[in-house]
Design a protein that fits this description.
- With about 170 residues, this protein is mainly alpha-helical.
- It folds into 2 domains: about 5-50, no CATH class; about 55-165, no CATH class.
- Helices cover about 60% and strands about 10% of the residues.
- Helix 2 (about 60-85) runs antiparallel to helix 5 (about 145-165).
Length: about 170
């Protein structure tokens, strides 16, 4: 007859479990387990693995912000020009905003030499908004509501595309 010892989660000592982290072998409950392609891991091991992929240097934040803001300002100005076209402008915005976002993301990637970090991605996404603000401010001061709407559509489409393009999130495989 074999004796089985009851395992308890190292974070929640009152919870019995049969799971173990496949990296550090600590017992973890289902609430603490994070499923990875290689099995279940504890939060500390997952965080430790993620730190390996954060390669951004301090100057990448500055250079990425500047490049994204400048390119976004140019794209926002082009959106203003497209807004004057009329009905076909809606289609041009729907196709042009994601395309501009890809150009912005690739420009940032080139400047940062493909270094990565979640705070860098968030900084670049914020720079896209900051770059469009001067154009939006001009539109607000001239009370051109139609052009403001085009700018909002540009930002709603461009910011997530820039973030997902830089972070490597894949919605479909």
């Amino acid at each position: 007859m074999t004796e089985s010892t009851t395992l308890h989660c190292y974070i929640h000592p009152n919870r019995e479990t049969t799971l173990r982290c496949n990296n550090c072998d600590r017992p973890i409950c289902a609430a603490c387990a994070i499923r990875t392609p290689t099995g279940y891991r504890c939060r500390e091991c997952v965080k430790g693995q993620q730190k390996i992929f954060d390669t951004a240097e301090w100057y990448d934040y500055f250079s990425g912000f500047v490049v994204a803001a400048i390119l976004s300002g140019v794209a926002a100005f082009l959106v203003t020009l497209i807004g004057g076209i009329g009905f076909i402008g809606w289609f041009l915005i729907a196709a042009g905003a994601p395309s501009a976002a890809v150009v912005i993301a690739e420009g940032v990637r080139m400047v940062t030499r493909h270094r990565r970090s979640r705070p860098l991605f968030i900084t670049v996404a914020a720079a896209v908004v900051v770059g469009a603000l001067p154009v939006i401010l001009v539109q607000v001061l001239s009370l051109n509501l139609f052009a403001i709407l085009f700018q909002v559509i540009y930002l709603v489409l461009a910011v997530p595309v820039v973030y997902t393009r830089l972070s490597g999130i894949q919605l479909f495989r």
